[in-house]
């Protein structure tokens, strides 16, 4: 239903007639608001995936409705996409905290453990195994501009996450981001496969180091677009650590030169997309050399054109559309 503009009681009818619905994509359905979310949470008790991205009118009130719904209370809802434009840091932090408490309380009760807080998880192998096996798998915020460091400790406890997007997180600090991903700070994000920190100015080489140490070995997609504080030092660490990468996007980085890309054929055998649009310092000669050696790799240069491709070859926007995603270079 992406982009559909439901009128009147459409959602009420949908909910009443599709009670066993498990996935609902309302992305960019701009007529949906908090009332619509309440309809969904009251009626769709088996919902697993809910996409509300691109709906700017979703506020903290909608998050409260999600928490009260059966899909959250019984642990069914595992994938959430939100726009974030009208979410407050306090509201989102409270949402994550209560979401964790619900999940943790169920596990503790199952194991016969005393009351457990997300602030201090027990060093119990069975507890941590259940925390990893059942819980939120995808959390995506496309406009996190008003979300701050207070939310990050809760995110760091989401052990079941495999996909995390915190785009435009301009209030985050570098230290808080380091703590979020660092195993030394007891981060539980070691199973992430997809990570998008596009337009988070605090992402620097230290944050990249924490990411690589925490979940780098399993990452298949990493988006650090418009993260201007990431230098060649961070790039080298990514290429030396994240050997399963299939998609690396560094759009808008005007610092990296990219000499380390010469090692891509050996260090990144699975890489299929390397997006360097608007990266004005990267050496074209290096990219051309890599393109010859890795002909299945889509390398996009400063202009967003494929390196080594023909005039009618796919550009980054065409590839993004074919993947049914928003343009990779969106800013």
Automatic annotation (TrEMBL):
GO cellular component: SCF ubiquitin ligase complex
GO biological process, alphabetically ordered: SCF-dependent proteasomal ubiquitin-dependent protein catabolic process
Coiled-coil parts of chain: none
Name of the protein in question: F-box/LRR-repeat protein 2
Species in which this protein is naturally found: Schistocephalus solidus (Tapeworm)
Lineage of the species this protein comes from: Eukaryota, Metazoa, Spiralia, Lophotrochozoa, Platyhelminthes
């Amino acid at each position: 239903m992406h982009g559909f503009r439901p009128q009147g009681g459409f959602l009420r009818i949908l909910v009443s007639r599709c009670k066993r619905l498990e996935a609902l994509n309302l992305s960019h359905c701009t007529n949906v608001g908090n009332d619509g979310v309440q309809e969904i949470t009251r009626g769709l008790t088996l919902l697993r995936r809910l996409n509300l991205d691109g709906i700017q009118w979703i506020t903290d009130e909608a998050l409260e409705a999600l928490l009260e719904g059966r899909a959250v209370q019984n642990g069914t809802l595992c994938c959430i996409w939100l726009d974030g434009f009208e979410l407050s840091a306090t509201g989102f932090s409270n949402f994550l905290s209560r979401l964790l408490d619900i999940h943790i309380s169920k596990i503790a009760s199952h194991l016969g453990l005393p009351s457990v807080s997300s602030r201090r998880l027990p060093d119990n192998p069975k507890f941590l195994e259940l925390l990893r096996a059942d819980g939120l798998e995808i959390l995506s915020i496309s406009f996190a501009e008003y979300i701050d460091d207070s939310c990050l400790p809760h995110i760091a406890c989401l052990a079941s996450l495999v996909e995390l997007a915190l785009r435009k997180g301009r209030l985050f600090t570098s230290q808080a981001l380091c703590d979020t991903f660092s195993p030394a700070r007891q981060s539980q994000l070691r199973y992430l496969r997809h990570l998008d920190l596009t337009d988070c100015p605090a992402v620097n080489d230290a944050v990249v180091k924490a990411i690589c140490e925490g979940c780098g070995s399993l990452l298949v997609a990493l988006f650090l677009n418009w993260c201007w504080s990431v230098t060649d030092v961070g790039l080298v660490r990514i290429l030396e650590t994240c050997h399963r990468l299939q998609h690396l996007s560094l759009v808008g980085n005007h610092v990296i030169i990219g000499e380390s890309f010469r090692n891509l054929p050996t260090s990144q055998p699975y890489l299929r997309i390397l997006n360097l649009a608007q990266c004005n310092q990267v050496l074209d000669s290096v990219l051309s050399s890599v393109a010859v050696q890795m002909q299945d790799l889509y390398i996009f240069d400063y202009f967003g054109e494929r390196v080594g491709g023909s005039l009618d070859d796919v550009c980054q926007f065409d590839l993004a559309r074919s993947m049914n995603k928003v343009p990779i270079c969106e800013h």
